[in-house]
Amino acid sequence: MAHRWKNDLTQADVTPEAAYLNRRHFMAGLAGVGLASIAKPALAEGLEPNSWEEITSYNNFYEFGTGKGDPAEYAHLMKTDPWTIKIDGMVDRPGDYGFDQVMSEMTVEERIYRFRCVEAWSMVIPWNGFELADLLNLAGVQEGAKYVGFETLYRPEEMPGTQYPVLEWPYKEGLRLDEAMHPLTIMATGIYGKPIPNQNGAPLRLVVPWKYGFKSIKSIVRITLTDKEPPTSWNQANGREYGFYSNVNPEVSHPRWSQASERKIGGGLFAKRVPTLMFNGYENEVAGLYEGMDLAKFY
Amino acid sequence: MPVVDHLNTTLRKLPSWVLYAVGAVYPAWLLYQGLIGGLGVDPVKVLEHEMGERALQLLILGLAVTPLRRFTGLNLMKFRRAIGVLTFFYVLLHLLVWLVLDVQILSQVWADILKRPYITIGMVGFVILLPLALTSNNWSIRKLGPKWRTLHKGAYVAAVLGGVHYVMVAKGFQLEPLIYLAFIVGLLAVRAIGSGRSLLRKSVHG
């Protein structure tokens, strides 16, 4: 199991914590004298992972509020132990799977992925996790299953943001089965080798690196195999703006903003926008999944 | 109302340049914070949002001056010009942050203004405010005479556009922008009812 996909980023690309802390000081010092623009190291050319602070302080997790800092402030209220994932629908072994039980069966590896939010900002995140395919195989996907639906925990007393009807709770997401089984699709349980913080979707969340971030549903409590396209929260809230597929695509605009370029988080005030890549740079790996489909229609 | 009287006395002593000074220092301080990492990991969005939200708050304050005086006796009349000019200044900074730091690409900026309704609406609001800011001086008031009052009613239109712009930016169903819009519409309604009444009074008294 696992290691079916070869990472083009390696451990060497992960900035050691001490180094990025140093760099922050360095940058802050330079910024003070107005030299921030020359402070970017050459590594930033390609895919330098964002710092722990950036990844864990700037989140969209509307169950804890709509501000980017709200999840970091309130997500500690969420109890993640014990945690069970209900796997049901078209599977051979439906049931409640304990988080520890799942972890004992999975091979955790590191995946350094680009992360592109539908709001046109991006990060690079060194996830730790296992392939979703392995979890689905654990439950045994039945013949005829075509889609996978996911649900986030909905516990209003631990999630202050859910008192507002920003979206329909619980948060729901979905994938086509072939997308779910793709080796790039993982369940992340850690970042930088540490357990994933609550604001990033503890104890386990989906990561589909070629789709907009909101597809990568957090704090999953239910996985349902079906033969029909499952309803998804953002699509229900505004189908014109958020399609079921939501593949990163620089050529298909969000109705309210262009998706042609993105702002890389961590570059400071004067960071240049960079062009957004087709399928977020994973075109070689995933374009085949959508052969013959009109991506402007199935956005 | 002794509290209001006290406030009015204190406010009378406060020169309006203090408002201009505070209003000018705040964005500079934010920019500095952005440079030294004090605005979190996405300083561009914080600056953009902060300037936009402060502009809306100033718009609301400006609209509230007359009703506040009528219903509570609180007199902010002498600060109204400063509030108005600062509103425009913050809208301008909001626009500049969006243009220079956020979108960056000029062709993209034009495309957005033409293609994205919430940006179109925001831009129209800005264009309406521009002549208002330029004529916020005694010379213009003298020169334009009664036309000045008519021109400056544009602030009402800009306020509604600003509120709608904020509502349209929000993702999902969010309360805060709706509260802003409700304040704006509410204050305009109070004004409309008020002026309706005074018209009535005028006609009764011939």
TrEMBL record, chain A:
Complex and partners: Heterodimer of a catalytic subunit (MsrP) and a heme-binding subunit (MsrQ).
Top-level division of the source organism's lineage: Bacteria
A single BP term in Gene Ontology: protein repair
The encoding gene: msrP
Protein name: Protein-methionine-sulfoxide reductase catalytic subunit MsrP
Pfam families on file: Oxidored_molyb (PF00174)
Keyword Metal-binding annotated: yes
Catalytic activity, EC: 1.8.5.-
TrEMBL record, chain B:
Annotated compartments: Cell membrane; Membrane
GO cellular component terms given for this protein: plasma membrane
InterPro entries documented for this protein: Fe3_Rdtase_TM_dom, MsrQ-like
Reported cofactor(s): FMN; heme b
Superkingdom of this protein's organism: Bacteria
Subcellular location, principal: membrane
GO aspect biological process, one term: protein repair
GO-annotated molecular function: electron transfer activity; FMN binding; heme binding; metal ion binding; oxidoreductase activity, acting on diphenols and related substances as donors
Listed transmembrane segments: 17-35, 55-71, 83-101, 113-134, 155-173, 179-200
Cofactor note: Binds 1 FMN per subunit. Binds 1 heme b (iron(II)-protoporphyrin IX) group per subunit.
Occurrences of domain Ferric oxidoreductase (ranges): 60-162
Topological category with respect to the lipid bilayer: Multi-pass membrane protein
Keywords (A to Z) from UniProt: Cell membrane, Electron transport, Flavoprotein, FMN, Heme, Iron, Membrane, Metal-binding, Transmembrane, Transmembrane helix, Transport
Assembly information from the UniProt record: Heterodimer of a catalytic subunit (MsrP) and a heme-binding subunit (MsrQ).
Xref: NCBIfam families: PRK05419.1-5 (NF003833)
Function: Part of the MsrPQ system that repairs oxidized periplasmic proteins containing methionine sulfoxide residues (Met-O), using respiratory chain electrons. Thus protects these proteins from oxidative-stress damage caused by reactive species of oxygen and chlorine generated by the host defense mechanisms. MsrPQ is essential for the maintenance of envelope integrity under bleach stress, rescuing a wide series of structurally unrelated periplasmic proteins from methionine oxidation.
Family the entry assigns: Belongs to the MsrQ family.
PANTHER family reported in the protein's UniProt record: PROTEIN-METHIONINE-SULFOXIDE REDUCTASE HEME-BINDING SUBUNIT MSRQ
Annotated protein name in UniProt: Protein-methionine-sulfoxide reductase heme-binding subunit MsrQ
Origin species: Falsiruegeria mediterranea M17
Gene from which this protein is expressed: msrQ
